[in-house]
Amino acid sequence: MARKIIIDTDPGQDDAVAILLALASPELELLGITCVAGNVPLELTAKNARIVCELAGRPETRVFAGCDAPLSRKLVTAEHVHGKTGLDGLTLPDPTMPLQDRHAVDFLIDTLRAEPAGTVTLCPIGPLTNIATAMQRAPDIIPRIQEIVLMGGGYFEGGNITPAAEFNIYVDPEAAKIVFDAKVPLVVMPLDVTHKALTSRARVEGFRNAGRVGPAVASWTDFFERFDKEKYGSEGAPLHDPCTIAYLIKPDLFTGRHINVEIETGSDLTLGMTVADWWRVSGRAPNAHFMGGIDDEGFFALLTERLARL
Ligand code: BDR
Ligand code: CA
Questions:
Q1: Domains, the chain, ranges and CATH?
Q2: What ligand has the least distance to the C-alpha of 240?
Q3: Mean pLDDT per 10-residue segment, the chain (310 residues)
Q4: Which of 4, 34, 107, 270 is most buried, judged by most C-beta within 10 A?
């Protein structure tokens, strides 16, 4: 039986690839996509998610708009990485499929209450505002969540939006703290993993030839590569968000440790840092499976093979 998931997202080119990977994979049943403000404002993330579903030929996918700002801070966006639209690259048609008229947080709560306990996995790949809001508003849903598999944080790699913090956690650290403290089975794909999932010319050309979504995916990676190559001096750019979906399909591609991870919410200097007790020196109870390694060849092979199915 396919595993039921909800993707919580702020597309974003790498979010878009994660959505496509989920839609292409029979191991997963995508119950809905909940959008949040992050890489670009909510109006654009909710639009981009629908563009991606239509590109995949899956306009029946339910897309919900959620929170338009972090719990208690001003929204920080990342147009400098993803472009003005959030999905710069090949220009795709505006979506015609509707946005659902329920709020994303209500959809999360209703779904977790309606489905049997322990059967719905959440895959947040943007700031954690929607998930934390649902947990605050309806704490009864927390023990019903099967697992949360999120992209966020970084430890040995440091941060990408500040020296200490990764973007998704930095944008809404209070929300991240709620999620990391929730005592839900939690898998974290930090920069330590995603910075090893780098595009290369051969990998991008592999995407370009991968069926009907291929040219768009290649144009997205071509677009954000420019920024990342300059920043990191690397040969390619990290494909962050699809790591979460790949983990659900093929967990053996990844290695990590079950450790304690705390979120910094107090210090201006290190706001949004994921303080990961990798060496288990704090004595604090483990709360996350914090990943550190990836079989990058296997990851790109899986991604290319699945995208070609759409
Ligand atoms: C994360 O931030 C966003 O820009 C990407 O979509 C990804 O979710 C990487 O730090
Ligand atoms: Ca994202």
A1: 3-307 (3.90.245.10)
A2: 1
A3: 98 98 98 98 98 98 98 97 96 97 98 98 99 98 98 97 98 99 98 96 96 97 85 87 98 98 98 98 98 98 98
A4: 34
